[in-house]
Write a sequence for this structure.
RNA sequence: GCGCCUGUAGCUCAGCUGGAUAGAGCAACGGACUUCUAAUCCGUAGGCCGCAGGUUCGAAUCCUGCCAGGCGCGCCA
């Protein structure tokens, strides 16, 4: 792998910095970081290294900058380097100095921006994990899209990512689900039932009831005792819901490497083993928890419980692992689950949760520390809530009333690309107002069309070239140094920054950066397009511009594919 | 009361872990299609970066305290 021009410049400066510090007692050598200045007059790259160095050398920053420039040996492509402001070094490159990058992009094609995964830790990425009691709603959709894109971005940067979905197919909710289905089954048989508030009201329950009745005889269930009936119906209903959820996920282009069932943890005895282990380790004691703060609890009865000493590992209060009826809490199963991930060889886990689970992070991390010694694991990304609106008017969503809007409905209305791209245009920390009309709009209000249009536009030019009988020159025969216009320069810089952007996105778990980047890249292209006609008489310049367009299309396509969004060649 | 997240242009959001004159899109106003896709581009206007302190050469960014909004806070998942 050859060093980029940026790397060469950085290296040249770093060498001088080390030389200057040779006579000084310094604990550590500050590292040179090249930045892209916002102002064009500040050159192509800027370095602030003179500022931190000034303190160590006890000179003023501008003097330091002068010493650096006196010694440094820049590569040929550097035209000039000047000192500016309090001590910045601004580096200007020769026109077209970096334009060779577009050849690399085309040679690497879909691999541009990616690195191989030869030596990296395995990462377990758990996301969505929507309860199998109903269809996915838009909030789940955001987590799903973010998680899948993050997986793609991290894979592109060499991480070995395993995508996992945790199915909460145990607990009281499954009993509620089974009972709801049973009531609907009876109703379908013409039996008069009353549907209690505690049951799930959605129409999908009726569909499930029908599905179950299709191959099975009603009498078969009627004859069973209630416990085994609810158990069997629970299993069937979970399977039906998971089939629906998987189809919803597929609709937005998401598939998992593994679906992990909570029930198997209980059945295999892993949960009880975990509790026994904690008992043996002396991490469990009998105690009474204080009443919850902040909200009135009616009929609060303090009770004695066996409590896990999570406070010893950073939690706020100790947590119960067993309910009063002797069954395990959700928390107990969840730490058994994370311990299982650890046993499967994952030292690194990332969980993507909804914001309403934020209070849960410390206790899981505390438990994992107690069990495995791992610190800050799992790494939890909280995705803030989604508010669905139409023309700015909020939807009233209530699962109870059956008026929540499913992800599937939204995808059908606005399309997969719009859903996926729009969810990626904001940081996960900010709440999302998702407007259905805006997401459907095919104009500048909707960023997905803006970027797709850029891609389609490039292909329109390429098609035009083809119909005019223009042959594309071989990549290495093109003189890219002819690309000297401001717009071309800006576009090339955007294309160059793609790998760095991806690396940052992967390291910081911020896949939204990819979306922001594509929008900027598309803007740089549209701007170039308007000022620089591609198909023209000047053959050499035309070939250079065609090459620039092809590499731009390649990067847009690469980036969009990480987000699971299509790159159409015509619109 | 406590914990987490958020507060940047009229609206929706960026701001690359401390850099130079805080940026986009929408909305407003004014321009650009006989020429490769106007789903586009160019320009104008619009800012006590929630408030107040602190850290330092330098703060939207880091720290502290307030204010406002969202989420959460016993054996629900």
């Amino acid at each position: 792998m050859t060093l980029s021009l940026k790397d060469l410049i950085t290296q040249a400066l770093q060498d001088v910095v080390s030389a200057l510090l040779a006579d000084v007692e310094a604990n550590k050598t500050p590292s040179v970081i090249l930045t892209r200045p916002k102002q064009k007059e500040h050159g192509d790259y800027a370095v602030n290294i003179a500022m931190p160095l000034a303190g160590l050398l006890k000179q003023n920053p501008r003097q330091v900058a002068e010493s650096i420039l006196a010694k440094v040996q820049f590569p040929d492509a550097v035209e000039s380097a000047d000192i500016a402001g309090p001590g910045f070094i601004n580096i200007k490159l020769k026109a077209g100095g970096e334009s060779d990058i577009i050849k690399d992009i085309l040679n690497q094609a879909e691999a541009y921006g990616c690195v191989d995964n030869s030596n990296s830790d395995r990462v377990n990425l758990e996301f969505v994990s929507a309860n199998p009691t109903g269809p996915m709603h838009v909030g789940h959709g955001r987590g799903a899209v973010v998680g899948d894109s993050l997986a793609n971005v991290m894979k592109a940067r060499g991480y070995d990512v395993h995508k996992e979905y945790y199915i909460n197919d145990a607990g009281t909710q499954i009993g509620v689900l089974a009972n709801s289905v049973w009531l609907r089954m009876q109703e379908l048989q013409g039996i008069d039932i009353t549907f209690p508030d505690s049951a799930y009201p959605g129409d999908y329950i009726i569909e499930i009831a029908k599905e179950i009745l299709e191959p099975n005889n009603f009498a078969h269930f009627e004859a069973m005792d209630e416990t085994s009936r609810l158990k069997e119906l629970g299993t069937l209903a979970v399977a039906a819901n998971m089939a629906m959820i998987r189809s919803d996920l597929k609709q937005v282009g998401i598939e998992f490497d593994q679906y992990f069932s909570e029930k198997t943890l209980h059945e295999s005895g892993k949960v009880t083993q975990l509790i026994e282990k904690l008992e043996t380790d002396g991490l469990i004691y009998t105690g009474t928890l204080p009443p919850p703060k902040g909200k009135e609890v009616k009929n609060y009865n303090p009770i004695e419980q066996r409590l896990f000493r999570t406070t010893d590992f950073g939690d706020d209060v100790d947590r119960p692992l067993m309910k009063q009826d002797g069954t395990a809490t959700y928390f107990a199963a969840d730490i058994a689950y994370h311990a299982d991930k650890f046993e499967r060889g994952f030292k690194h886990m990332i969980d993507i949760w909804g914001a309403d689970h934020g209070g849960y992070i410390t206790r899981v991390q505390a438990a994992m520390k107690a069990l495995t010694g791992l610190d800050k694991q799992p790494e939890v990304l909280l995705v803030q809530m989604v508010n669905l609106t139409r023309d700015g008017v909020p939807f009233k969503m209530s699962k109870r009333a059956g008026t929540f809007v499913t992800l599937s409905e939204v995808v059908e209305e606005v399309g997969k690309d719009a859903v996926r791209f729009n969810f990626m245009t904001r940081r996960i920390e900010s709440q999302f107002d998702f407007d259905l009309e805006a997401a459907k709009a095919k104009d500048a209000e909707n960023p997905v069309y803006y970027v797709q249009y850029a891609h389609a536009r490039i292909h329109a030019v390429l098609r035009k070239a083809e119909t005019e009988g223009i042959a594309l020159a071989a990549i290495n025969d093109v003189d890219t140094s002819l690309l000297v216009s401001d717009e071309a320069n800006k576009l090339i810089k955007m294309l160059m920054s793609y790998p760095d952007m991806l690396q940052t996105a992967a390291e910081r778990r911020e896949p939204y950066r990819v979306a922001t980047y594509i929008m900027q890249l598309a803007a740089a292209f549209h701007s170039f397009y308007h000022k620089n006609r591609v198909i023209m008489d000047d053959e050499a310049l035309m070939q250079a511009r065609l090459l620039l367009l092809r590499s731009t299309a390649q990067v847009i396509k690469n980036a969009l594919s990480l987000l699971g969004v299509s790159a159409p060649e015509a619109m």
In short: Residues 220 and 229 of chain A are 9 Å apart (CA to CA). The two ends of chain A are 38 Å apart (CA to CA). The first strand of chain A starts at residue 45 and ends at 47. Chain A has a mean pLDDT of 90.
